[in-house]
Structure to design on (708 residues):
């Protein structure tokens, strides 16, 4: 590892479905990262995984650690900040301009308006319900036996989108079962599911002026079918923040960068 | 009747105050022992300023009110009244008044609402109804109340100037208690009230005087009504003056304190006890303001709160904010009792009560609410606002997204919409709520461009 890539800060994003961490150098570039499924014992997982990351990045115990994500309180960190602040910081560092960031995570969806200084100008989140989150897709695709890695290909093959009217995860599951029973093509249902989720997310984003760019982060941004559906629902180009899953962790690391 | 009356007077005049004094002595004694022995619950450094001395008097006043209430029915006429009802018209007839909404707040602070609500949800009342209504009906059905006992009403007095829910809720009460329900129906005001609106309400107030006399059996001389209006107006002015001390920097109290100290102006408006209490509170607040004694230890960011408080989470929220130097210095809710009541004119009882009660914030359009909020933001010099989107209180919560945008555009005020319920903790996700508040607070410390 070269001197330029020397890690000066670490960031952990302890999410509800995935645990993410990065090490950054003095310029804010990511020099090492880790993504793991979240374990119930977040404290223990963090202790173990951060040690791995420190070794990978050559960062000794003096290199500070910032934490975010719903499990952040169980992470012994130099500083702990909410996902909203960290996502805004992380996305601004990568996109370098203001805009609206849409982060579709496992159990929540955040829409953050990032101001000219990388500050949080406004935000909104889904409330008390998994509709409009990655979990929604995961549950229903599981029911359809569509592997997550093949989702985009499935949606792309659809001749037309089948209307899924329910955005409640539980109701949509039974609706999808009936659609399959009616003989509707699985490809069309997959496309329809994305449209249903995208319209839900777009409604959340719709409360904010979208005069700058529209950015997307979170694990769901890795699914091209979702990005396309979202762009369709918003009628806008949606740019994916590089390393979309690591945006929160990057923001946490930037917050403690000396 | 005579025995009830004797009991009631005894409690109100002698036994009650005596119990209060004993209680107070016991409290003082405990505190003194704790000071001397250093024992007792260890208190971590509070993010608040020194507590308000008046709070103890408030507790006494409200405890006495509910204690006397237990013996009121059968002794004096009893009315159950909505918070926005022109109660001044009832008072001269000698009614003891019960405010189910205030009682609901007490239940909510004690986190009793889900239990009381479930009792009537089983009967088919929807959870989408206002939690105050569910809680009150549940309390009536089960007889459970933190007040020990609520007196049975002889009259139900409902005014639709706060919402339409109260109408159906009070109808259900009338059905249950088989007592008369008197309704003051107030047309919603867009801009200013039209003359025919005013006449319509005025006619109802006139009729109300007759109903009050008939139910109570007490004839009221015009001077008696005038006198009550004078007392009520003075009470409103005192409350207004208390709230305005929040303009001082740092504010001598918090908006959360003002929610607690609101109880007398809501439920004892038009009585001397209410005014006597606010004189004490005002003296203390003005003294604190003069000496720079703050409501929270380190007031850094001043906020406005919109809508009812989240009663069951009041302390937690206040602490979270205060720990980070955020203080509510004004709230549209507490302001509602300082505003319209100022229109009362003892020389014109029916006319002025009509104007006052038709012009309450919940009975007026959104532009009026925006004007009020903007004025408060400026006068209290706030940098941010939390708009509680109250699942229970739709009339108060409607339009908040627009209000939030307008505050941001026109005054540069950062605002957060916080979804909760004022009384039913089942409708509040506290973990998510706390996260939003933390993110909101963090957004005041501008991120440095990376
Ligand atoms: S709906 Fe709102 S105004 Fe009506 S009783 Fe409930 S809290 Fe009060």
């Amino acid at each position: 590892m070269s001197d330029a890539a020397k890690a000066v800060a670490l960031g952990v994003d302890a999410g509800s479905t995935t645990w993410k961490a990065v090490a950054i150098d003095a310029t804010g570039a990511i020099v090492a990262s880790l993504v793991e499924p979240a374990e119930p014992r977040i404290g223990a997982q963090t202790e173990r995984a951060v040690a791995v990351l420190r070794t990978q990045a050559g960062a000794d115990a003096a290199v500070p650690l910032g934490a975010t994500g719903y499990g952040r309180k169980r992470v012994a960190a130099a500083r702990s900040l909410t996902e909203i602040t960290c996502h805004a910081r992380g996305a601004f560092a990568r996109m370098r301009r203001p805009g609206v960031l849409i982060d579709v995570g496992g159990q929540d969806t955040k829409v953050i308006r990032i101001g000219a200084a990388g500050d949080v100008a406004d935000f909104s989140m889904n409330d008390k319900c998994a509709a409009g989150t990655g979990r929604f897709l995961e549950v229903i695709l599981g029911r359809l036996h569509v592997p997550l890695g093949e989702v985009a290909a499935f949606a792309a093959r659809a001749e037309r989108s089948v209307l899924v009217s329910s955005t409640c995860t539980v109701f949509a599951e039974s609706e999808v079962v009936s659609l399959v029973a009616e003989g509707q093509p699985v490809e069309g249902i997959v496309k329809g599911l994305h449209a249903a989720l995208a319209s839900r997310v777009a409604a959340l984003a719709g409360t904010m002026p979208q005069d700058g760019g529209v950015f997307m982060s979170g694990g769901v941004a890795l699914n091209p079918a979702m990005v396309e559906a979202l762009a369709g629902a918003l009628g806008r180009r949606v740019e994916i923040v590089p390393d979309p899953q690591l945006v929160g962790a990057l923001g946490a690391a930037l917050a403690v960068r000396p | 009747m005579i025995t009830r009356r004797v009991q009631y007077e005894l409690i109100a005049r002698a036994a009650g105050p005596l119990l209060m004094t004993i209680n107070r002595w016991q409290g003082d004694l405990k505190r003194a022992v704790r000071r001397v022995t250093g024992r007792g619950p260890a208190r971590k450094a509070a993010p608040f300023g020194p507590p308000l001395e008046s709070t103890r008097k408030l507790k006494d006043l409200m405890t006495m009110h509910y204690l006397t209430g237990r013996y009121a029915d059968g002794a004096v006429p009893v009315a159950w009244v909505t918070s926005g009802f022109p109660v001044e018209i009832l008072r001269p007839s000698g009614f003891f008044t019960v405010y189910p909404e205030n009682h609901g707040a007490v239940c909510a602070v004690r986190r009793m609402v889900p239990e009381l609500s479930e009792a009537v949800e089983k009967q088919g009342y929807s959870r989408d109804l206002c939690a105050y209504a569910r809680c009150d009906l549940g309390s009536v059905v089960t007889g459970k109340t933190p007040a020990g006992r609520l007196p049975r009403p002889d009259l139900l007095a409902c005014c639709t100037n706060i919402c339409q829910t109260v109408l159906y809720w009070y109808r259900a009460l009338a059905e249950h208690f088989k007592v008369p329900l008197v309704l003051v129906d107030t047309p919603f005001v867009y801009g200013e009230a039209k003359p025919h609106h005013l006449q319509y309400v005025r006619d109802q107030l006139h009729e109300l005087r007759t109903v009050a006399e008939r139910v109570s059996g007490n004839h009221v001389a015009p001077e008696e009504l005038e006198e009550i209006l004078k007392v009520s107006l003075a009470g409103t002015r005192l409350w207004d003056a208390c709230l305005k001390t929040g303009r001082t920097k740092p504010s001598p109290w918090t908006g959360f304190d003002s929610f607690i100290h609101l109880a007398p102006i809501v439920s004892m408006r038009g009585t001397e006890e209410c005014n006597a209490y606010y004189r004490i509170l005002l003296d203390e607040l003005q003294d604190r303001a003069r000496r720079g004694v703050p409501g929270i230890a380190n007031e850094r960011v001043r906020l406005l709160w919109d809508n009812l408080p989240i009663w069951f989470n009041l302390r937690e929220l206040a602490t979270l904010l205060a720990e980070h130097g955020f203080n509510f210095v004004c709230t549209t809710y507490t302001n509602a009792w300082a505003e319209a009541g100022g229109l009362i004119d003892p020389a014109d009882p029916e006319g002025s009560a009509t104007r006052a009660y038709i012009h309450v914030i919940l009975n007026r359009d959104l532009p009026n609410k925006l004007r009020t909020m903007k004025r408060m933001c400026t006068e209290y010099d706030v940098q941010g606002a939390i708009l509680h989107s109250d699942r229970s209180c739709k009339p108060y919560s409607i339009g908040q997204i627009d209000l939030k945008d307008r505050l941001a555009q026109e005054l540069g005020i950062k605002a957060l919409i916080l979804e909760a319920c004022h009384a039913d903790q089942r409708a509040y996700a506290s973990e998510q709520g706390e996260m939003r508040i933390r993110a909101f607070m963090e957004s005041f410390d501008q991120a440095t461009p990376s």
About this structure: Chain B has 18 helices and eight strands. The interface with chain A takes residues 401, 408, 414, 417, 419, 429, 431-432, 435-436, 438-439, 442-443, 446-450 of chain B (CB under 8 Å). Chain B has a mean pLDDT of 92.
